[in-house]
Amino acid sequence: MPPKLKIVYYVEPDAAALAERAAQYMVEAVEQAAAQRGRARIAISGGSAPKAVFKLLADPSQPWRARMPWDRLELYWVDERCVPPDHPDSNYRMTREALLEHVPLPEEQIHRMEGELEPEVAAARYESALRNSFRLEGAETPPFDLIHLGLGTNGHTASLFPHSAALHEIGRLAVANEVDDKNAWRITLTWPVINQGAQVFFLSGGAEKAEILKEVFLGPNDPERLPSQLIRPAGGILTLLLDRPAATLLPPVGGDGRGFFEREE
Q1: pLDDT digit string (tens) for 4-15?
Q2: 29: helix, strand or coil
């Protein structure tokens, strides 16, 4: 019988408190990895919630900027839209404007997906970049220390969309994936790569996420329709960072704002 997945979730009262929780969570994970292995390799996602977190990490009036070991951080992306890096829809552009322009992270430690290239070329180049920077051999998978994910109201995460071809890819590290309902292409890490992350967390806020959170984490298993259900970290623990409106349909948390439950395969 497959092992159960333990889902640990933290619920903050509002979006501002959620951003603070996520900033703390990320800094502590990077500090731990850097102390243990000399460097920390993390993969991030785009969206409005992470933008608020990145601004906190870049803010010199906050403790997180000074605590983050920038010189030992290697930054990667979970996914990217197939647009140039200066395009308004670019995940890289959002991160650059909110974070990278304001912190001492060396350019050579920033590993972006080249969304301006043909999708298949961009995916192949990112896979090659991962193999080189992680010094992978054969079928090895990059061991990220931390992977940050979002959750779409349709159940997607990364650029793993419902009923899309990337859901069936288990051999590649990164792939191009067509999003039929948006008539667009994305580059994304594959779910087996995400599942090898030492720590994997979803960051999600807002009342519009309440129903999909319940469906993904408490409902029947249907990953073709709800790709976020493919995320089952090898370590057996998945973390959710939520605000109160998003968490209203999950089991109640304790007085410390923390809860957990287990999910079968």
Answers
A1: 899 999 999 999
A2: helix
Distance between CA atoms of 170 and 8, rounded to whole angstroms? 26
Q: Which residues contact 146 (CB under 8 A, 6 or more apart)?
A: 26, 29, 30, 33, 40, 41, 42, 43, 197, 198, 199, 200, 201
- How many angstroms separate the CA atoms of 42 and 33, rounded? 10
**pLDDT the model gives residue 112:** 98
**Whether 12 contacts 244, CB under 8 Å:** yes
Range of the domain at 48: 5-263
Q: How far apart are CA 234 and CA 16, in angstroms?
A: 31
Two tokens at 47? 């969206």
Read off the pLDDT of residues 15-26 as tens digits, 9 standing for 90 and up: 999 999 999 999
Q: What pLDDT score does 179 carry?
A: 85
Considering the entire predicted model, what is its pTM?
Answer: 0.96
Whole-angstrom Cα distance, residue 246 to residue 157?
A: 16
Q: What distance in Å separates the CA atoms of residue 208 and residue 116, rounded to the nearest whole number?
A: 31
Sheet holding 200-204, edge to edge: 110-111, 73-77, 40-44, 146-149, 200-204, 237-243, 5-12, 258-263
What's the average model confidence in pLDDT over 146-165? 97
**Contact present, 73 and 39 (Cβ < 8 Å):** yes
Q: Which CATH number does the domain housing residue 178 bear?
A: 3.40.50.1360
pLDDT for the residue numbered 182:
64
Q: Please tell me the total count of domains within the chain.
A: 1
